[in-house]
């Protein structure tokens, strides 16, 4: 598979593009260089990994469509380099560029670009005809691609016999039939009705799980970007202002522009449990006994502890009252004391699906990884706080940050360091710190 790199790329349209680039590098703005040309892309740097779905998002005029046209050589950068694997698209010969487009890069356009006089099958097979593939093989690969997009029975039809969504599927099948490593999609679903558009998004995700292609998807729709992208680049006035996962962009917008862009997003469907979970205040080993569990709860000043086995797999919780009774009775194990009825969620669970278990439990919801190991917990207060959009404004001097305000001034010891709590039994989220509300206090 092949990745893409964009290194210091500028694209200026006009009479003196090189002069415009020189002034932009010296600190001039987009409007300042208008006498010399229109700066469509300014100093773009991107590294798109092989097999990644990378979304470029921005409003009209942000430069995203110009950028994607440089990724397949339709436009040459005024300055900088676009690297497809080891090939510099701005430096290769015309014949090399044609070969790259035929064999390494496919493109799906917004307006289908189907040949009206050719059948659906022939449209899907068209890139293979340009590659010189024989007719029988072209037909076979085209039919396979049409099956992938749900149009296996429409191969003999003409484009005008299909709905808009079906014609867009033919465009996608044409790109798949070419079997290139890289798939460029420029506002590919923007002309579709909302319901059909969502069906196409779902189908693209399903295909990507099977094919693992490098996809660059251009859109002005934030929800589409959040839904499809492994990572997202946000563009404004020709510049890339932020690159990150949907969670990173939603949780920590780079500036006010990005914050306003994401203000109306349903955060509970984008953020996952791993992005808001906190370190549990008390964790006890299943084989440690009730006395050790009590010490862990005492040091953390909580009334219950999460119980894990030696592999850190979550077994349930033990409450202080049960541990006290067992200690008085001379019991040396936690057998019969572990309550396994507490519902856990996985690290990838959207926050929208955490509210139900959080409402049903008096304790923070435990979060587990793909092996069932305890990764963190989500207190109800943190869950509610996560719904509030991030504030990118600068607080007055001396104002404590949210993290500072969340930590009691008298707290000197991290609960995770309490005796009986394994140092590696938990994994805090990037924003994780001390527990904010005595997580398992009765």
UniProtKB/TrEMBL annotation:
The keyword Calcium does not apply. One of its GO terms (biological process) is glycine betaine transport. GO terms for molecular function: ATP binding; ATP hydrolysis activity. It comes from the Bacteria. GO terms for cellular component: membrane. Residues 390-442 are annotated as: Disordered. InterPro entries: AAA+_ATPase (IPR003593), ABC_osmolyte_uptake_ATP-bind (IPR051921), ABC_transporter-like_ATP-bd (IPR003439), ABC_transporter-like_CS (IPR017871), CBS_dom (IPR000644), CBS_dom_sf (IPR046342), Gly-betaine_transp_ATP-bd (IPR005892), P-loop_NTPase (IPR027417). Keywords: Amino-acid transport, ATP-binding, CBS domain, Nucleotide-binding, Transport. Residues 399-435 have a biased composition (Low complexity). Pfam families: ABC_tran (PF00005), CBS (PF00571). SUPFAM superfamilies: CBS-domain pair, P-loop containing nucleoside triphosphate hydrolases. Residues 4-262 form the ABC transporter domain. Belongs to the ABC transporter superfamily. PANTHER family: GLYCINE BETAINE/PROLINE BETAINE TRANSPORT SYSTEM ATP-BINDING PROTEIN PROV (PTHR43869), GLYCINE BETAINE_PROLINE BETAINE TRANSPORT SYSTEM ATP-BINDING PROTEIN PROV (PTHR43869:SF1). This is Glycine/betaine ABC transporter ATP-binding protein. It comes from Cellulomonas pakistanensis.
């Amino acid at each position: 598979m092949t990745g893409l790199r964009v290194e210091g790329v500028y694209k200026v349209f006009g009479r003196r593009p090189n002069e415009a680039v020189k002034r932009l590098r010296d600190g001039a703005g987009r409007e300042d260089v208008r006498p010399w040309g229109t700066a469509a892309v300014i100093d773009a740097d991107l590294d798109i990994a092989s097999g990644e779905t990378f979304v470029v998002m921005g409003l009209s005029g942000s430069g995203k469509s110009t950028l994607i046209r440089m990724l397949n050589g339709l436009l040459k950068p005024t300055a900088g380099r676009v690297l497809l694997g080891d090939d510099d698209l701005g430096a290769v010969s015309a014949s090399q560029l044609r070969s790259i487009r035929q064999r390494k890069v496919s493109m799906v356009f917004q307006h289908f670009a189907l040949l009206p006089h050719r059948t659906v099958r022939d449209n899907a097979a068209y890139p293979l005809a340009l590659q010189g593939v024989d007719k029988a093989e072209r037909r076979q690969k085209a039919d396979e691609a049409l099956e992938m997009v749900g149009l296996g029975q429409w191969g003999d039809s003409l484009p005008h016999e299909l709905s808009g969504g079906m014609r867009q599927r033919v465009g996608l099948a044409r790109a798949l039939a070419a079997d290139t490593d890289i798939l460029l999609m420029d506002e590919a679903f923007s002309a579709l009705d909302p319901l059909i558009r969502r069906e196409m998004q779902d189908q693209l995700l399903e295909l990507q799980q099977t094919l693992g292609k490098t996809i660059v998807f251009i859109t002005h729709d934030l929800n589409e970007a959040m839904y499809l992208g492994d990572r997202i680049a946000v563009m404004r006035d020709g510049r890339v202002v932020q690159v990150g996962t949907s969670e990173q962009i939603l949780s920590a917008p780079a500036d006010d522009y990005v914050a306003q862009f994401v203000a109306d997003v349903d955060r509970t469907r984008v953020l996952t449990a791993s992005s808001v979970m906190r370190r549990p205040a008390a964790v006890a080993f299943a084989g440690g006994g009730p006395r050790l569990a009590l010490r862990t709860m005492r040091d953390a000043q909580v009334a219950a502890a999460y119980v894990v086995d030696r592999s850190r797999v979550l077994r349930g919780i033990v409450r202080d009252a049960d541990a006290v009774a067992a200690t008085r009775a001379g019991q040396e194990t936690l057998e019969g004391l572990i309550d396994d009825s507490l519902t856990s969620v996985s690290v990838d669970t959207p926050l929208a699906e955490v509210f139900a278990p959080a409402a049903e439990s008096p304790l923070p919801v435990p979060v587990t990884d793909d092996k069932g190991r305890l990764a963190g917990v989500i207190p109800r207060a943190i869950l509610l706080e996560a719904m509030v959009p991030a504030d990118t404004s600068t607080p007055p001097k001396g104002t404590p940050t949210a993290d500072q305000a969340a930590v009691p001034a008298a707290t000197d010891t991290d609960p995770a360091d309490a005796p009986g709590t394994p140092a590696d039994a938990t994994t805090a989220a990037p924003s994780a710190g001390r527990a904010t509300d005595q997580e398992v206090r009765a």
